[in-house]
Amino acid sequence: MEKFIERICEDQPSCKKAFKEEWGALRFTVGDKIFALLGKNNQNDLIVTLKCAPDKANEYRQEFLSIMPGYYMNNRHWNSILLKNCDVPKPLLKQMIIDSYNLVYKGLSMKQKEQLRTKSLPLNKK
Description:
Keywords: DNA-binding. GO terms for molecular function: DNA binding. InterPro entries: YjbR, YjbR-like_sf, YjbR/MT2646/Rv2570-like. The chain is 37% helix and 26% strand. By secondary structure, the protein is α+β, with helices and mostly antiparallel strands. The protein has a single domain, classed as Aspartate Aminotransferase, domain 1 (Alpha-Beta Complex). Strands 1-2-3-4-6-5 form a six-stranded antiparallel β-sheet.
């Protein structure tokens, strides 16, 4: 499941992946803003933390035992998903990662979005 999550995160445009030593977690960012964290909670269980629209965040928490308020994040906008015995289907988890990315990307400034678009353009060879 860990590799599946990493692959989906890395597939997002302009995604950067870095290990944050102090947190003991992999951070996936777009425009220097986190859209996914992959690490462990205080029980040493592997979790992924994703941004989510507040209405969907609560809906997911009620529907799936593996989904809880975001670990060390704003509980209104973030969910953490316990990966051990996870009851969230992979297609939904993939969509949650994509939704998290889109929410974070949408919140970037126009300047940041333009910089990301410019960086992703192929180089013109003359």
